[in-house]
Amino acid sequence: MFKKGIKVVLSAALGFGLLAGCSSGEKEQSDFIGDQVKYEIIGIDPGAGLMEATEKVLKEYELTDWKLIEGSDTAMTASLEKAYKEKKPIIITGWTPHWKFAKYDLKYLEDPKGVYGADEEIHTIVRKGLKEDDPAAYEFLDRFEWTPADMEKVMVDVYEGMKPEEAAAKWVEENADKVEAWIKDVPQADGKKLKLAYVAWDSEIASTNVVMHVLESKLGYKVEGLQVEAAPMWVGVANGDVDAIVAAWLPTTHQRHFETHKDKIEDLGPNLIGTKLGLVVPSYVDINSIEDLKKK
């Protein structure tokens, strides 16, 4: 009886301790999003316009406790994938079009101060003199345009394991009418060389590979694709070392580069309309505005 009584008392004490521990843990678990994500916003390449805009967001909304983590598109989406699988909160810098919106249920945080600006466009930029040196390439590049839905189809195929050039070829084959409008009456190049530059974003990998595939398979060009950071991409086309880019996000993301080089390039206008920039969270995260990041 005595020994049994000790067991009962010990069991009760242990049970109370466990309950007390749980209760203490629950108290320590903050409901504030900043505490949950360690006041970190997962970003992309340092120097990208989206990163610069996000730094402005932190200042405008007085989010002095928050840190913008530099990395890459790949690192950002890897962090998102891990958090999403575990249903953990995460805040990332995001843009549309991107395959992540087709794969995950995400939402943009409202930006009531309009720091990120209006929706952007993706422009085609060519070097000075391309029209005179290669009117056929110029004509095709001037005609090239597609939609966010078109781009996302290529991006999803790449994400699911297809090589970018294979995904581009698949899209071109499945969208023959659209491609025909780009190349109608454009003369064959017979092996003439072109250089295109692009940043290592899923969106620009998709668009540039589609353009390269059409130039090579439909118009007979030999195209070299150069994957670089944003600054050298713009410098290359401004210096004439690169013939064109179809990856210029304006007026926000690449604004600084455009302003620096605008007198040395030719802007052929948008090839895609309907992009968006901002802070993005999974839909299960219970915040809706950038203002929700400020502790009250």
UniProtKB/TrEMBL annotation:
InterPro entries: ABC_Gly_betaine_transp_sub-bd. It is found in: Cell membrane. SUPFAM superfamilies: Periplasmic binding protein-like II. Its main location: membrane. Residues 34-174, 192-295 form the ABC-type glycine betaine transport system substrate-binding domain. Coiled coil: none annotated. Keywords: Cell membrane, Membrane, Signal, Transport. Pfam families: OpuAC (PF04069). Residues 1-20 form the signal peptide. It comes from the Bacteria. This is Glycine betaine ABC transporter substrate-binding protein. It comes from Paenibacillus residui. The lineage of its organism: Bacteria, Bacillati, Bacillota, Bacilli, Bacillales.
